[in-house]
Amino acid sequence: MTDIPRRSVLEAAGSAVGTALLATGSFSALAQASDESTEDGSAADTPGWPMRRGNGAQTGYATAAAVGPSVTTRFYTPESTNPSDPTELAVGDGHVFTTELLDDVSGRSRLVAYDKDSGKQVWEHVPPSRGDDATASGVGRVLDAPVVSDGTVIVASDGSNNDGEWEYGGVFAFDTQTGALEWKNQDSYNWRNPLVADGTLVAQNLENNNVNAFDAESGEQLWVRQTDLTTTTLFAVRNETVYARLAGPDSRYIVGLSVADGSEQWRHELPADVAAAQRPGNAPDAAVHDETIYYATQTEHENALVAQSLADGSVKWNCSLTQSCGDPRDTLSELVVADGSVYAFTTVDSSVDAAISASLWSVDTASGTREWVWTSPYPLYGSPTATDGHVYLGTDAPLTEDASGRYYDVAPISEYPTVVAVDTADGEVSWAYAEPPESGGEDELFAQTPVVTDHGIYVKATGDDRDSSTRVLSLAATDDEIGPNHRPKRL
Known about the structure:
Layout: E1 8-9, E2 19-22, E3 28-29, E4 70-76, E5 90-92, E6 95-101, E7 109-115, E8 121-125, E9 136-138, E10 147-149, E11 152-157, E12 166-168, E13 170-175, E14 181-185, E15 191-197, E16 200-205, E17 210-215, E18 221-227, E19 231-238, E20 241-247, E21 252-258, E22 264-269, H1 272-275, E23 285-289, E24 292-298, E25 303-309, E26 315-320, E27 331-332, E28 336-338, E29 341-347, E30 358-364, E31 370-376, E32 380-387, E33 390-397, E34 416-423, E35 429-434, E36 446-447, E37 451-453, E38 456-462, E39 470-478
Parallel strand pairs: 1-8, 9-12
Antiparallel strand pairs: 2-18, 3-14, 4-39, 5-6, 6-7, 7-8, 10-11, 11-13, 13-14, 15-16, 16-17, 17-18, 19-20, 20-21, 21-22, 23-24, 24-25, 25-26, 27-29, 28-29, 29-30, 30-31, 32-33, 33-34, 34-35, 36-38, 37-38, 38-39
């Protein structure tokens, strides 16, 4: 120790910072869903992982029991031949939801629902292709996991490549059981960071840096919070408060907005490392727990975890993740807050050959002291998640040399999507499980963020280029030892 039948549903039809509330906008409502029960008439199950990071507070923590002492494959969906940007899946109402990029020019994307028990595709929503209609329109490029709320699954998508011949992007809501389109909002085509709390959906409008709130069931716009800043980042939703980062040329704040009406409740200056310029392509990540907001921040020379009091805005601690590993690694993951600790990993780019490719850090929430670090010989992907007692990570790893002849006549020749469970007490690996392709041989996929539910683990396996496939791997708890066909090397 030293990260059913296939069913296509097409779209049928005081400072330098200032804020202001705007009037509600228009929306388009279609085929409102009324049946939120299962086929046997019972109530649909509550979401196991209803949005990115598992909850509105963005802690990455699941109340489900730890998965183990070992795992086995429940299902592994067929290759889709399409890449997928979000690292996380959404699980709820008996289904696993994911999105896939169909056209990297227009950003056109599809939403897919799989049965959480069998892995069979239940339905898909595929927008019309550019060229099929005079002006094609529908779900654009999706960068965040879908959101599941009371029988509805919602995606926020981006249409920044719209050129007049197509109009992809917007917020779209579908019935979780049938895939029927319930409502959409295309007043703007560019959206990110959808989160839901008590039936209210909040999302970030990238066109104007506004934070918008919608009724998740009907799509009615409830309020808009406008800012005159150059950057707005929607962090979390918790206890009737929306947490957002507002940044301008000279001012950077964390603000609390009312979920009910968008009014500003309080404002604190951001800690120095969080306010500082971040490495290109990166923005600070945050999670809220109790009366503290925790940040993962990447400046030019530092990867760090920072804790800030929500009561008075004071910095509680700043923990460097660079001091013991030299130059800051390429990637700092999103946070997990659980068991009185903050967990995050740093990892090198997958193309880098390094003896230690990644490190998972455990930091005490009260003091900011490093408790332990687990090092991985393989890069880590996505972000960690946790239950009581374990942190779960996605990577890719080769099998051990005694891999079954079912796959090879010689030693393993590729690395395969792998999920790792690390004990939070001591940073030791409890189990690690690799999933080779059915026919063996080469495989370019790696495991992203494992999402944990009472039904086990679901993880997206995908690659890192435009020609990659996407698959969904489901792992169930078992008492049986992991066999050589799934036992990764050096983990």
